[in-house]
Write a structure and sequence with these properties.
- 29% of the residues lie in helices and 29% in strands.
- It is of the alpha/beta class.
- Strands 1, 2, 6, 7, 8, 9, 15 and 16 form an eight-stranded mixed sheet that branches. Strands 3-5-4-11-12-13-10-14 form an eight-stranded mixed sheet.
- It folds into two domains: 264 residues, FAD/NAD(P)-binding domain, CATH 3.50.50; 112 residues, D-Amino Acid Oxidase, subunit A, domain 2 (D-Amino Acid Oxidase, Chain A, domain 2, 2-Layer Sandwich), CATH 3.30.9.
- The longest helix is centred in the C-terminal third of the chain and has 28 residues.
- Helix 1 packs parallel to helix 3 and helix 6 runs antiparallel to helix 7.
- The termini are far apart.
- Bound molecules: flavin-adenine dinucleotide.
- The site of flavin-adenine dinucleotide has 38 residues, from helix 1, strand 3, strand 7, strand 10 and strand 14.
């Protein structure tokens, strides 16, 4: 079918694909500038199911407007536990979110700014002038001038661009009942958690307990999580193991080298915006989303889509160096994890964001610190 024959059900300035933190932030920003914005989400319910450990730096309040009701509790410090029994404490001011509420809040802000949001609708195909979307069995073409791919780690939009897959971690998590309140987050390193770590993030009366590892260890995850829960039980941290829910998913560990392709932008996990070591991706998704939405709107107002290149410059200016440096550490971590003579404590300190050793070869890397650098998670 030629483009002229294709009939478009609707026309928008900007189509945002995926209503996670990146997509809703982009839609809010662009609609707020008076553009016609459609935000589509394949899930029936925005924010559900939650696939996240829900910890975000307090910096998020600077970039996202959301009701304080989506914050379950504050986190002040992070304790890093090593298998040799040593524990290190670092400052890590953050919020434990109710991610389902948080995502809904961001989508609500987008709607209040003037964006149209439709759920249960997936993007399935792209053409020069639009995107084919599907809701139940009904398919229709939507005409759009700019496409923002905010569709997460397994991005369909990235597939349209035929982009190679990027490094990832996989994670399994359960939410357990917490018998006494806790205001710090725990991180556990162990040689068995290859390339990753275990976590206990308290969330009021419950806690998210999970493990992330390199994909080659995916099949080990259920057993590793079981053993981790038993360890927490034996150490008294969890006097009883009472699981109320389970989740999991993949986390990007590598920033994409290019995120602007003609009239298409990639944002958030789709662009590999999570931190390559910690896997923290909420804050960067919000920051990049805001920039993508604003720059897409400006490009349309100026009638110059080449202006979209500024998005690439702006997100890199905001947190590109932190990600690039994190990726350098990711490669180092993966290469050294299994080495027989490796000093595991030293390896952790050189590769975990909060330690001073993490920054030792910063100068050599030529990647100067930026705004969000040093945020542990
Ligand atoms: C187990 C786990 C724990 C994590 N813990 C943390 C943490 O504690 N702190 C932190 O900062 N980060 C954490 N992350 C990472 C964080 O969840 C992501 O970085 C963040 O959600 C990225 O936001 P996003 O908007 O880019 O993508 P997402 O939140 O993944 O949103 C993408 C949306 O696009 C939709 N979508 C996909 N394809 C289509 C399509 N074709 N059409 C329409 N819609 C589509 C999806 O349904 C989804 O709603 C964790 C991740 C995992 C898996």
């Amino acid at each position: 079918m030629s483009m002229d024959d294709r009939s478009f059900a609707e026309s928008y300035d900007i189509l945002v694909i995926g209503a996670g933190p990146a997509g809703s932030s982009a839609a809010r920003e662009a609609a707020g500038m008076g553009l016609r914005v459609l935000l589509i989400e394949k899930k029936e319910h925005i924010g559900i199911p939650v696939q996240c450990a829900e910890l975000v730096s307090k910096w998020v309040s600077r970039y996202a407007s959301f009701d304080l009701g989506s914050i379950v509790q504050s986190i002040e410090t992070m304790s890093i536990h090593l298998p040799n029994g040593k524990t290190f404490e670092m400052k890590s001011p953050g919020y434990m979110l109710d991610r389902s509420l948080f995502d809904k809040e961001l989508a609500t802000s987008a709607i209040q700014s003037g964006a149209e949001v439709v759920t249960g609708t997936r993007a399935i195909e792209v053409s020069a002038e639009g995107v084919l979307i599907q809701r139940n069995n009904h398919k229709e073409w939507i005409r759009t001038r700019v496409i923002i791919g905010a569709d997460g780690v397994h991005s369909t939009v990235a597939r349209w661009m035929k982009l190679p897959s990027i490094r990832m971690m996989v994670a399994l998590q359960c939410e357990v009942v917490l018998f006494k309140p806790q205001s710090h987050a725990d991180i556990f390193f162990h040689p068995d958690y290859e390339g990753g770590y275990g976590w206990v993030f308290p969330k009021g009366r419950t806690a998210n307990v999970g493990i992330g590892v390199l994909p080659l260890k995916t099949s080990m995850l259920p057993e590793l999580l079981d053993r981790f829960l038993n360890l927490l039980n034996r150490s008294g941290e969890l006097p009883r193991i009472e699981i109320v829910s389970k989740t999991g998913g993949s986390i990007p560990c590598e920033p994409r080298p290019q995120t602007v392709f003609g009239n298409i932008l990639l944002v958030g996990d789709a662009a590999g915006h999570a931190h390559p070591i910690t896997g923290a991706g909420i804050l960067n998704a919000v920051i990049a989303g805001e920039r993508a939405g604003r720059i897409a709107a400006e490009a349309i107002v100026r009638e110059d889509l080449r202006y979209l290149e500024n998005y690439e410059l702006e997100w890199r200016e905001a947190f590109g160096n932190a990600l690039q440096y994190g990726f350098h550490k990711r490669v180092f971590l993966d290469e050294n994890w299994k080495k027989k003579d490796i000093d595991f404590e030293r390896l952790v300190k050189e590769t975990w964001v909060g330690f001073k050793e993490y920054y030792e070869d910063r100068k050599k890397s030529g990647l100067t610190p930026r705004d969000t650098d040093g945020i542990v998670l």
